[in-house]
Amino acid sequence: MPDLQLAGCRPEPLAHYLKALGILRLVSEQVDPEVRGWWADDVFWLRTKLSPEEVEQFLLEAYRPTPIIAPWNGGSGFYYQEEKLKEKDPVTGKRKKTGVRNQPTAATRVVDAVASSTAPRLADFRRVIQDARAVLGARNYQEAPGDEEKESLMRELRGQFSDTAVNWLDAAFVLTEEKPKYPPLLGTGGNDGNTDFSSNFMQRLLELFDGIAGKPSHQASSWLQEALFGTIVGGLQKGAAIGQFNPAASGGTNAGPGFEADSLINPWDFVFMMEGALVFAAATTKRLSHSGFGELSYPFTTRSTPVGYGSSSGNGDNPRGEIWLPLWTSPARLAEVASLFSEGRAQIGRRQASTGVDFARALASLGTDRGVQMFQRYSFLQRNGKNFYATGIGRWKVTHRSEVNLLSEIDGWLDRFRSAPLGDRAPARLGQALRGIERAIMEYCQTGDAQRTGNILIALGEAEAILAQSPLQFRKKYFLKSIPLLSPKWVEAANDGSVEFRLAASLASVGLRENMEPVRVEAAWVGWLDPDTHPRVVWGHGSLTDNQNAVLSRRCMDAQREQRKGLPLAGKYPASLNDICEFIVGNVDERRLEGLLRGLTLINWRLVQESSQATDDRESPLPALYVLLKLTHLPHPFRGISIPYEPAIIARSIAGQSSEASRLAVRRLRGCGFMPAVEVTCEPANVTRRIAGAVLFPISKQQEASLAGRILGPLKLERHVTV
What we know:
Blueprint: E1 3-6, H1 14-30, E2 36-40, E3 43-47, H2 52-62, E4 81-88, E5 95-103, H3 106-115, H4 123-138, H5 147-160, H6 163-172, E6 174-175, E7 180-181, E8 191-192, E9 195-196, H7 197-208, H8 220-229, E10 237-238, E11 264-265, H9 267-277, H10 281-286, E12 301-302, E13 321-328, H11 334-343, E14 347-348, E15 351-352, H12 356-364, E16 372-384, E17 387-397, H13 411-419, H14 428-447, H15 450-469, H16 472-477, H17 489-494, H18 499-508, H19 513-516, E18 519-521, E19 526-528, H20 544-561, H21 577-585, H22 590-600, H23 624-631, H24 647-654, H25 658-671, H26 685-694, H27 701-711
Helix pairs in contact: 1-9, 3-7, 4-5, 7-9, 12-14, 14-15, 15-22, 18-22, 20-24, 20-26, 21-26, 23-25, 23-27, 24-25
């Protein structure tokens, strides 16, 4: 079989993707059951016994359109308009209505034309129109039914129509125990705003074929060349509706050289597009289920996640959902393609993907069918009155990301966060925080590197901080708990090798979460506390250095009040002296460092094994003031001697008084029997404050010895004072 390249069928726009499915379906069902189709080089290919000329001949001469009608819709062509008198209402100024519906519309004329045709290729269409009119007549419907009667009509039509027509119904809606559900692919039951897809389908057919004999129109052949092979032709139809499927062809503002432009479409494109949508029909009924949010589960369709693409803003677009369309690369028969849509899966563990973020995670965890290497992502965005547009928002490869399963640790919390009313009744920043988390997850799923994993932690830390600042009653009402303790695996996964990460991990390993937000952290549990009765929370809106100093002071004060033997400054991830030097001189990105710190404090550091970083700190030019401050604020005895805490040392340092702080530190060390080689040090006030903040970074005992070797002489045992 020769391979036929359909250059007119590409993954974007959605109309052209569906067109490819439609051509494959029609050729398979009506002329060559062995035909296969696949995606390669960004176009669709057919492997068929037919030559290109024979494919064209079949479509022009023998193609039998699927009966696509929607009698439940007002614009379907089954209901006349109400007659109006010439006389005007004196109050409204509008022509008076008679109450009699007898005025034809463009849509009713199209239905009449198809119903009265004698073309053999439209025989199924005529039969279905007759069946629909019989049902509507028995119900005495003069206008489209309301919501309550619509479901009843849909059920009756489904029982009356032929199998071919039922396929269309299954693609347009699904009847559930509650009410009809509408997959976003076909709008709300076959219409989008004022555009009825079934009426437009019939209009396009009458532009392609003579309504009497069914012969192709004089332009049908050239239009077909363009639809199949991308051949540039003129004479496209102006003003014809394309609906949500091809935003670029829908006309409107800025669509042409002037202020407004008519839509331009190829009738074949619309016809093939609608035929392709029926590939989803069987899939809908087989895969119908309800997510935890009571929404329809539809193949490769999720609730919208307004992140992960350049124009996403999180507001204003009012998305109706997303669809992730598979681009399979191996030749497949129609039955195999239909099976892909009906049996295809996008799962996270044992649950089905329900959001765009979920789908991206499924791709990163290989939670999709084998043989599909890539997906084209579309979002249905409302950007023109009532109308939605299927906007392509990226191509996603199926690539395994080893750490993506770590996200299962926050699934329960994230689902609860999503379900909270993040609108007018919630603090405005909560919605931004949710989008930040989802954006970070999707970026990780695309690239999979440690920096993106760190960005997830940053987003989680930001969300936790915003939640902590929201009213406690709001959190209680909507069960918005603090983020659960994360596993130590996050530390390795987020380690991007940067000085910011190492310093953030060092601080977080001290266990600062209770100093940063009103929570109580137990061995395997964390919960909110009342911020008004939780004095340990001292992290505020100031600079990183200011907050480090506040925490240092608070922890030392608590230790003194509680009469602890050592200062609570030990950590499982000691910082290198070189990194501490970089912090003191200001060679770090403090915003990222603090963001990583907030995220890394969410980790259960009790389960983290103490790090033994192999670093060469011999050349780090640390200020003598830092050495003095660090040696007087160790979490354990030094050389077997407990150095008593002196609050004034840190107080003077935070005040920027380096000379006085150093004198006090030297005095304290000498009082413990040590002989510092300096008497006093002088540093600028701002540097002094940074040095004080640097004391909070834990270091190893080996590094403590290294510091002591720089500034301390031999121990004078006779001057040792036991405390």
